[in-house]
Design a protein that fits this description.
Elements: H1 12-22, E1 27-31, E2 37-41, H2 42-58, E3 66-70, H3 75-86, E4 90-93, H4 100-110, E5 112-117, H5 122-129, E6 137-140, E7 157-159, H6 160-165, E8 181-186, E9 196-200, H7 201-212, E10 224-227, H8 239-246, E11 249-252, H9 259-268, E12 273-276, H10 278-290, E13 300-303, H11 310-320, E14 323-329, E15 336-339, H12 351-358, E16 363-364, E17 368-373, E18 387-394, E19 415-423, E20 429-434, E21 439-441, E22 444-446, H13 448-456, E23 461-471, E24 475-484, H14 492-497, E25 511-514, H15 528-535, H16 538-542
Parallel strand pairs: 1-11, 3-4, 3-5, 4-8, 5-6, 6-7, 10-11, 10-12, 12-13, 13-14, 24-25
Antiparallel strand pairs: 1-2, 8-9, 14-15, 15-16, 17-18, 18-19, 19-20, 21-22, 23-24
The protein binds adenosine monophosphate.
Domain AMP-dependent synthetase/ligase: 17-402
Family: Belongs to the ATP-dependent AMP-binding enzyme family.
Organism: Paraburkholderia hiiakae
């Protein structure tokens, strides 16, 4: 017997319709690349998104065609999120931090028909425009007064605000198939070419429902959300959609991601929750400490994309009374997979136990199932000790990569994440390493994430990165690369002593190298492959 309930497709445009009707006056605040602060509300967003949808049809963008964006977090980017996907085209967010060669590859691979860009990225657009054949137009996301003087784009250059002004807001969002594609995001491709993950309206909506929940990203109509995580990196972890679903105020930082600008925005706009990778928060914390500041409104910060060091959790929670929500995910997971929110019996944990728990990436949100397997594919127990390859499946996990030129990534219906993890009896997952970063010493694994976490607790350490360095006897041994805090005279021997009693003896790195900085990739993660190329022979040379 069939159920007798309405069948309504799960569509991205319905999020916008909801926000307009139920939270129309709620604010969206953006720091613009033009330099000023822009304010409007969901009602304006919806109206301008409909104008832009009409503009897209005047540019003859057919359903399913890709529309590229090269843009910071801001209201115009938000308009495109809904105008493009809502009208049946596919929003393709390009990562401007990628090398121009990779951008050319991605634009051609995706066959983007038009590309919208923030003024900051004009030089990048100029450098790729002659090398790509698919885009018919490049649209500067600005008004007529700020239009760039460039001859290299010729008649292919259009003005965003002209398109808005020249079109009416009478667009009717089409009733699409909920399984049709809504957006496209390429993985960062540290090995080989980037691969496209093609989200559907359905996967996006289900991800939005689940990610907004109290035990996930915990967003509500009372929140003011600051997504520092870029809208060009896995849809800013879904926050633009979550904000529409919940009616939260949105605060977009634009291009100003330094500690001072973020702090100013957080205080002036009374942000309650922010989200970003650890490297961004380092700048914020350093600034707030340098001015002896405090957070008057921020209650939570969501940290993911890379392991959140315990020292950072402590700085937020102990010094600033801001709760840290450690989360794990990936492009292929839309991205949210696990969030470290406590279960009832964990709320009374002692301080040390609480920080140990928060170092874990957390438990599955409903909609994602996970397991760890050994090299033979056999499932390993959830005992907090066994470490294996982490596999997932669920409503918003990629089934295959865009373009048809890749074999299915799935293994027996599960997506192999490329992460090595443990899962404890409460279902809390902890990443040991990316499988390619794991250190294999004498046939046993050492977790670089654990080593980094301990080193980061030392008060004079700003950044700690642990890599596998080749070793004549043990195959590989951990090598620690440290960026010291300004003014520190820390010696290697002192830092190594700090490990005594904190990790097993054979996990202790054999050497520490002090460096000025570590290379950071396009999505804010440390580029360990570069460091391995540079320092991986250290013990061979030393021996
Ligand atoms: P991306 O697809 O660029 O978002 O990268 C996904 C990868 O980032 C994951 O497979 C993990 O290796 C890593 N990652 C994401 N979140 C975390 C986290 N909280 N802790 C450790 N690694 C993480």
């Amino acid at each position: 017997m069939q159920g007798m309930m309405m069948e309504q497709p799960l569509l991205v445009a319905s999020l916008l319709k909801h926000a307009e009707r139920h939270h129309g006056a709620r604010e969206i605040v953006s720091r613009r690349v033009e330099g000023d602060i822009h304010r409007y509300c969901y009602r304006d967003l919806a109206q301008r998104a409909r104008r832009m949808a009409n503009a897209l049809s005047s540019l003859v963008i057919a359903p399913g065609e890709r529309v590229g964006t090269l843009a910071w977090n801001g209201y115009r980017h938000m308009e495109l999120y809904f105008a493009v996907s809502g009208s049946g085209a596919v929003l393709h967010t390009l990562n401007p931090r990628l090398h121009a060669d990779q951008l050319v590859y991605i634009i051609e691979h995706a066959q983007d028909r038009v590309i919208f860009f923030d003024l900051t990225f004009l030089p990048l657009i100029e450098s790729v425009a002659a090398r790509v054949t698919s885009p018919r137009f490049f649209i500067a996301m600005t008004d007529r007064a700020h239009m760039p003087r460039t001859h290299s784009l010729g008649s292919r250059l259009l003005c965003y605000e002209d398109l808005i002004d020249n079109h009416k807001d009478d667009f009717e969002w089409p009733l699409l198939d909920e399984n049709s594609a809504s957006s496209l995001c390429y993985t960062s491709g540290t090995t080989g070419n980037p691969k496209g993950v093609l989200y559907s309206h359905r996967s996006t909506l289900l991800h939005t429902y689940a990610a907004a929940l109290p035990d996930a990203l915990n967003c509500s109509a009372r929140d003011a959300i600051l997504p520092v995580v870029p809208m060009f990196h896995v849809n800013a972890w879904g926050l633009p959609y979550i904000a529409c679903m919940t009616g939260a105020k949105l605060v977009f930082p634009g291009a100003a991601l330094d500690g001072k600008s973020l702090y100013q925005l957080i205080e002036e706009e009374q942000v309650t929750v922010s989200a970003g990778v650890p490297t961004v928060w380092q700048g914020l914390l350093a600034h707030v400490e340098s001015v002896a500041g405090s957070f008057s409104s921020m209650r939570r910060t969501i940290i993911g994309g890379a392991p959140c060091p315990t020292a950072m959790t402590q700085a937020f929670q102990k010094r600033h009374h801001v709760d840290v929500l450690h989360a794990w995910g990936m492009t292929e997971l839309s991205p949210v997979g696990t969030v470290c929110s406590f279960k009832a019996h964990q709320t009374g944990l002692a301080e040390d136990e609480r920080y140990a728990l928060q170092a874990k990436q957390g438990r599955s949100v409903f909609g994602i199932d996970m397991k760890i397997v050994d090299a033979a594919g056999e499932e390993l127990p959830w005992d907090g000790n066994a470490a294996g390859d982490l596999q997932v499946r669920g409503h918003w996990v990629a089934n295959e990569y865009f373009g048809g030129d890749y074999a299915s990534p799935l293994q027996d219906g599960w997506f192999p994440t490329g992460d090595v993890a443990k899962i404890d009896a409460d279902g809390f997952m902890q990443i040991v390493d990316r499988s390619k970063d794991v250190i294999k010493s004498g046939g046993e694994w050492i977790s670089s994430a654990d080593i980094e976490n301990v080193a980061s607790l030392h008060p004079e350490v700003a950044t700690a990165v642990c890599i596998a360095a080749r070793h004549p006897k043990w195959d590989e041994r951990p090598l620690l690369l440290i960026v010291k805090k300004p003014g520190s005279a820390l010696e290697a021997a002192d830092l190594l002593m700090f490990f005594d009693g904190r990790v097993a003896k054979w996990w202790k790195p054999d050497a520490v190298l002090f460096v000025d900085a570590v290379p950071i990739g396009a999505t804010g993660k440390v580029l360990k492959n570069q460091l391995r190329d540079q320092y991986g022979g250290h013990y061979l040379q030393a021996g």
